[in-house]
Design goal:
26 strands, mainly beta, 4-stranded antiparallel beta sheet, Gamma-B Crystallin, domain 1
């Protein structure tokens, strides 16, 4: 796990904030950033919240003022680690036209001037085969920076029979209609990613959240039957988790904030019902019964003013769990 420290003043002075995971909004921890110390890991920092705006890539070292990371201002509002920065291979392809058309060049090493080396002035499309790369809009690693990473291979397998037998369907993206590929589903293998599967087409009906692992029968994902008709990938921007739940709709009444799993909500919450919720970080699952039993409801980052907004027919919640893609 990496570690980065942000300082409000130059030369590591003033108020500071230590960070060891992705953070979509840093503005509550400091008002400006004029120096940074990266103790471990490779980080990309952003000018705006939610990983938007100008970006700067920082490797381990000390940056005594913001000019050292070529910043245009003292605004740093979000950050995340680069997961595959220390790979054993680096390769990318650049194309002179959109949609991978025109002349193609393949690169496996740093290039201080794309024009001098390859006689290519502009690149309109790109494929990252291995590693993580940084594009600069000026020669000799100057100007705006743009991080390009290899897309992870996301896969889920649906099998018609138990114990991964019979006809199967391999899926790598959202699918609103699975029934054209398999007639029933009695076992599932999740190779990568976190997924939510649905009993009905177009992401309707009972839902079940699955992370990487093997599910040899539908009981292993708390299913009621072998009917699965749609699935989608759970996309979440950070490894931080924080949620508030409320006794009444519209964020009123008793409130509790937490950042860990709760196998039995009644241990910390005297009410059986949750009528509204605010997911501040991460992705969560509400379970109808304690110990992660019963119907499941996925809650992604955002505000839920009443229980019907997370798809529940009633507000009863017995346990709550974070979605973690191990």
């Amino acid at each position: 796990m990496g570690k980065i420290t942000f300082f409000e003043e130059k030369k590591f002075q003033g108020r500071c904030y230590n960070c060891s995971s992705d953070c979509a909004d840093l503005h509550t921890y400091f008002s400006r950033c004029n120096s940074i110390r990266v103790e471990s890991g490779v980080w990309v920092i952003y000018e705006r919240p939610s990983y938007k705006g100008f970006q700067y890539i920082l490797s381990p070292g000390e940056y005594a003022d913001n000019q050292q990371w070529m910043a245009f201002s003292d605004n740093v509002k979000s950050c995340r680690t680069i997961k595959n920065a220390y790979g054993s291979a680096w390769k990318l392809r650049l194309y002179e036209r959109p949609d991978f058309g025109g002349q193609m060049i393949e690169c496996s090493d740093d290039c201080p001037s794309v024009y001098d080396t390859y006689k290519m002035r502009e690149a309109y499309s790109c494929v990252v085969t291995d590693g993580a790369w940084v594009f600069y809009d000026l020669p000799n690693y100057r100007g705006h920076q743009y991080l390009l990473e290899q897309e992870p291979c996301l896969q889920i397998f649906f099998y018609e029979d138990k114990n991964f037998q019979g006809h199967y369907y391999e899926c790598s993206s959202d699918c609103p209609e699975i029934s054209s590929h398999v007639s029933r589903c009695n076992s599932i293998r999740v190779e990568n990613g976190a997924w939510v599967i649905y009993e009905r087409p177009h992401y309707m009906g009972y839902q079940y959240v699955l992370v990487r692992g093997e599910y040899p029968n539908f009981q292993s994902w708390n299913g009621f039957n072998d009917t699965i008709h749609s699935c989608r990938l759970i996309r979440y921007p950070s490894s931080r988790y924080r949620m508030r739940i409320y006794e009444r709709p519209q964020f009123s009444g008793q409130m509790i904030e937490f950042s860990e799993d709760m196998p039995n909500l009644l241990d910390r919450w005297r009410y059986r019902d949750v009528n509204s919720a605010h997911v501040q970080d991460g992705v969560w699952v509400f379970y109808e019964h304690p110990n992660y039993g019963g119907r499941q409801y996925l809650l992604e980052k955002g505000e839920y003013r009443r229980h019907v907004e997370w798809g529940a027919l009633h507000p009863s919640v017995g346990s709550i769990k974070r979605v973690v893609d191990f």
